[in-house]
Design a protein that fits this description.
The structure is a homodimer. Chain A is 36% helix and 17% strand. The first copy, chain A, is α+β, with helices and mostly antiparallel strands. Chain A has 3 domains: 1-57, no CATH class; 89-180, Jelly Rolls (Sandwich), CATH 2.60.120.10; 208-288, Arc Repressor Mutant, subunit A (Orthogonal Bundle), CATH 1.10.10.10. In chain A, the strands form 3 sheets. Chain A has a 4-stranded antiparallel β-sheet with strand order 1-8-3-6. In chain A, a hairpin with a 2-residue loop joins strand 10 (268-271) and strand 11. In chain A, helix 3 crosses helix 4 (181-207), helix 5 packs across helix 8 (280-288) and helix 6 (241-248) crosses helix 7 (252-264). Chain A is globular, with a radius of gyration of 19 Å. In chain A, 47% of the residues are buried. Residues 11-55 of chain A have low confidence and may be disordered. At the A-B interface, strand 5, helix 3, helix 4 and helix 6 of A face strand 5, helix 3, helix 4 and helix 6 of B. Chain A binds a DNA duplex through helix 7.
DNA sequence: CGTAGTGTTGAATTGAATCAAGTGTCGTGG
DNA sequence: CCACGACACTTGATTCAATTCAACACTACG
């Protein structure tokens, strides 16, 4: 039994416990089994659940207060009563199937979304029809801020695997931010972070080689997996090589070639969507040695 | 007498009036002459000035209420009394000389800045010493939002020409946003706009050719000049070819070559830093034909 | 079980980088 | 005010990293 983690999985800390195996396979497990897996050894205490349903990572009945992502997502820095107020405006939609769209380019902007489980990609379609991936989103991350200024989403966003999200109507978020200074502060920070991140990618795209971009991408994923308590060294890619290429400004073929070349160098191990980072130090050196 | 406009210049609408000639030359004109130029035919009414000094584009005595950029910059959508409150927290610093730094990478984040005149570039220095330009900023635009999340600026920012700015201490901006819903709303919009803009550049860098990037850059400058009532077809570049290259992910040589090639095609006319867009339609076609 | 989508690998091509040599421009100090 | 030096820009020849084209293998799913 292999051990590659996707953002759909609940990784545990105790050695004895195990986790769900393959991306998108969650639904194939029985609720009972999923419950057993998820309740053993989780870092963040989960409210004793009335029904097993509560445990499924796509379950829409979790409140912000009980969500295991609460310390990464919007509720950070809010106190209990404030979280309760936030909770009231969050809409927990039905899960999204792989390929389903959260919204499409130039749809009217209404909400931002927090990823609860799974993952999403945003992409921009140019007039000439070809698309470019502008971002990947993992649990705890916020989607849709590109629509705030123009009241229309600038990108389309689709689920990469079976995923679930929390919808936060923006006008209500604004209203609440007016009442809760720490929410306003935190949302400014979230947007500032998005800006800083986008500028890093600007640097990456304008000066890094294909190998540097790819190494940087893998390390980025790694630390984002770590953030949600999944293994930073072994994980499943939810996106295709094509998606990665469109994101990094490379072709599918180049991405594939770089993966095999990094493997030959002993830095990573690739098997389809399964990635293992064997030597994070040397991966870092690839980037700084530019 | 040529007619190329820089962000330092005050362009007027009436045909009879003239404007200051060359970038960075403002200080060489007498205050009297500058005053005469600036007061004739300006679109936005300027308060009758007690001293001629008021007219200089770098003059720090202008209030938000009287600033000709007020409808582009932060005060947008604020009413008179609100603008007054904003005014109270804005610090109008001494002008910056060409090359002077507003802040440096990893300085403690304290303020965001609104460009009042001139222009700035932000750039990121990697460990390996080489820098990459992450953005250019023109009058009415906001600088420094990359520092909000981490409390440290992620970039360095320097003046490209003699320039002046309004400093807005961020903690005070937050406090005021708490009181003025429309300020909060507008600042969310400004940040959202920065995010959308950065994602556009992501697309540009990951799929456009050198020619497409350059055309897109020129058209972008053009519409930003138009925003501040300067000619969208004739302007002076305040940045070097090297800066442009670092921004677009190209080398100096390539930028230079593309400029001459676009000139040969009759789309633009280049003379040093003087740019004229001769055929905006065809420039647009270069981009969409990707 | 077949088909569409995804991934790999190789060979040829090419757009932009690099290397190199020059001219042009600006600001400074004599 | 001019001469100098540093920087900015241009142009050409060569190289190279990544794309393109092409053929094939794998996988996953109805």
């Amino acid at each position: 039994m292999s051990q590659f983690w996707s953002a759909n999985q609940t990784q545990t800390n105790s050695e004895g416990s195990r986790a769900i195996l393959v991306a998108n396979s969650v639904e194939k497990k029985s609720d009972i089994e999923a419950a057993k897996l998820a309740t053993t050894g989780g870092k963040i205490p989960v409210r004793p659940s009335a029904t097993v349903l509560k445990i499924c990572p796509h379950n829409s009945a979790v409140s912000c207060a009980s969500c295991r992502l609460s310390e990464l997502c919007l509720p950070i820095a809010l106190n209990k009563s404030e979280i309760h107020q936030l909770d009231a405006i969050v809409e927990r939609n039905r899960p999204f199937k792989k390929g389903e769209h959260l919204y499409r380019q130039s749809d009217e902007f209404k909400s931002v979304y927090a990823v609860r489980s799974g993952s999403f990609k945003s992409y921009f379609l140019s007039d000439s029809g070809q698309g470019r991936v502008t971002g990947f989103y993992m649990p705890g991350e916020i989607i849709g801020m590109d629509g705030i200024a123009s009241h229309k989403y600038a990108n389309s966003t689709a689920a990469l695997e079976h995923s679930s999200i929390c919808e936060i109507p923006f006008s209500q978020l604004e209203k609440l931010s007016q009442e809760l200074p720490s929410l306003q502060h935190h949302f400014f920070a979230i947007m500032g972070n998005e800006i800083a991140k986008d500028q890093q990618i600007h640097t990456l795209l304008s000066s890094y080689t294909a190998e540097e971009r790819t190494a940087s991408f893998l390390l980025g994923l790694s630390s984002r997996y770590a953030r949600v308590s999944l293994s930073p060294t072994r994980f499943l890619l939810s996106m295709t090589r094509g998606d990665i290429g469109e994101y990094l400004g490379l072709t599918v073929e180049t991405v594939s070639r770089i993966f095999t070349s990094l493997q030959k160098k002993g830095l990573i191990s690739v098997n389809n969507r399964e990635i293992e980072l064997l030597n994070i130090e040397n991966l870092r050196e690839i980037i700084s040695g530019s």
